[in-house]
Amino acid sequence: MSYASFTNSPASTKVPAHSGAGGRAIPGGVGKSRLAALLALAASTEFLLVAVAAYSAAVLYHRLTFLGSPDAAKYVQESLLISTLQLLVSIALRQYSRIQTQPRHVFLWSGASGVFFVFSFFISTIFLLKISEGYSRATVLAQAVSVLLTVLCTRAIWFSLLQPAIASGLIDARRAILIGDPSHCLQFSARAIATGIRTIRSFDFPTFRADPSVPARPGAIQVLPDARQLVADCRPLRADDIVILISESDAPAALALASALSELPVDVHVVPVGAIDLMAVSRITQFGNMVTMRIFQSPLTPFNRAIKRAFDVAAAIVGLVVVSPLFVIVPLAIKLDSRGPVLFRQTRHGFNNEPIRVLKFRSMTVMEDGDNFRPVTRHDPRVTRLGRFMRHTNIDELPQLFNVLVGDMSLVGPRPHATSQNEVFAELISSFSRRHNVKPGITGWAQVNGYRGETDTLEKMQRRVEHDLYYIDNWSLLLDLKIIVMTLFSRKVYWNAH
């Protein structure tokens, strides 16, 4: 690379001091110290609760099983070792410090992974040291379950406390300096503040030109006083991040500017102007011997698909056992209520847009399918008296547990629509078919948030699709469990049910 220079002294613009609760300005150092103190308190709380949980599980198991207390000294030492290991894993992997920039399910999953690693290490250690005979396997299992629940509950509570404080500005998440066109800086700052990232100063992007007076030398970058002054201006601000907002014309200078800013102990980011939304869904990844920007990826890895499938099969079997009386009562009630078969199959689109045959208890006087399908409306005369009750309580969907067992559906996923509906909305909503990148579900994120029933307007379907895509992009087993619990107990599930 030839020598490069920056000309024109960069103009700087101060961003007004951000305010915390009640509009009181909070200095950056205070916000940072508050965050550090809260994170330290959170980690310490988890350490103590993990130790208590491990010891309590051992005591409770021995009292229930052997009607006596265990060796207190041994299990106190063991519990402290487990909690220490959990704390060290959390610190080493920066799990608490990353709470600033990660969603809840990632924070919880990192805690669960840490517990798995800790107990794997603990069991391996006592086995290699040949002291495993002194520990009951059932006791260690009870401790693992107890510690896992403790970590998940503790982190869920701390996340719910920290995130609103970060978002409100009571404590700082990240302090950023922006470099670029002032209008672009304002737009970026407005978006960043929603996640607690505070813009503390912005600078104009320096003008870039080649310096003809200096001979070219491959790989060399010359930083002239303008860029050095920019570094000097940024240094006392003690930012966490510097974000360079580049237009197409600024691209050649971005590397030289970033190189100059590398003297500062901050993270340096480059964001192409006009591509913020694109960057939000992209990841830099290794592709063979090249580096690419991956925009979308398969929602579930093979491992995640295996986990989800195992959960689906186990939960569907349990569900069928629990609701088995209804498979006797409901068919009899349907026969007494109206003429026609008890079950009917309807063609819908499944994974990868492939057609599947979905089972349902018959709740209508007709069994429309394919191009003859007409969506159900409120007070639809085609719905039987019993059918109205079944549709409102979701009982008509229970036969789909068999679809889950055979692998056509999942317990949780985007609800499958009739093929004729899919064909219509796929033409109107560009991302509609992304819903089929995972298996359809008996229940889903859209349904538990009240987006079910009629889709007589494009806006209703768009909102449903938005929730489905959120589920696909943020899948976790914990999210599946949350949706199942909400399906059973949330009132929103029954909104617009008819």
Write the layout of secondary structure elements.
Layout lengths: L3 E4 L4 E3 L13 H38 L6 H21 L11 H25 L8 H32 L5 E6 L2 H12 L3 E7 L3 E4 L14 H10 L6 E6 L4 H11 L5 E6 L3 H5 L2 E5 L2 E5 L7 H21 L3 H12 L5 E7 L5 E7 L23 H9 L6 H7 L3 E3 L6 H10 L12 E3 L1 H4 L9 H16 L3 H13 L9
Parallel strand pairs: 3-4, 3-6, 6-7, 12-13
Antiparallel strand pairs: 1-5, 2-4, 8-9, 10-11
Keywords:
Rossmann fold, 3 domains, 5-stranded mixed sheet, two-stranded antiparallel sheet, 13 strands
Number of strands: 13
Unreliable runs: 1-28, 216-224
Strand order of the largest sheet: 2-4-3-6-7
N-to-C order of helices and strands: EEHHHHEHEEHEHEHEEHHEEHHEHEHHH
Helix content: 40-55%
Query: How does the overall form come out from the CA principal axes?
Result: flat
What would your notes on this structure say?
The protein has 498 residues and is an alpha/beta fold. It has three domains: 4-24 and 174-294, Rossmann fold (3-Layer(aba) Sandwich); 28-168, no CATH class; 302-494, no CATH class. The chain has 16 helices and 13 strands. It has helices spanning 28-65, 72-92, 104-128, 137-168, 182-193, 225-234, 251-261, 276-280, 302-322, 326-337, 385-393, 400-406, 419-428, 445-448, 458-473, 477-489; strands spanning 4-7, 12-14, 174-179, 197-203, 207-210, 241-246, 267-272, 283-287, 290-294, 343-349, 355-361, 410-412, 441-443. It has a five-stranded mixed β-sheet, sandwiched between helices. Helix 5 links the parallel strand 3 and strand 4 (197-203). Helix 2 (72-92) packs across helix 3 (104-128), helix 3 runs antiparallel to helix 4 (137-168) and helix 9 (302-322) packs antiparallel against helix 12. The longest helix has 38 residues, at 28-65. The radius of gyration is 29 Å and the shape is flat. Mean pLDDT is 80; it is low at 1-28 and 216-224.
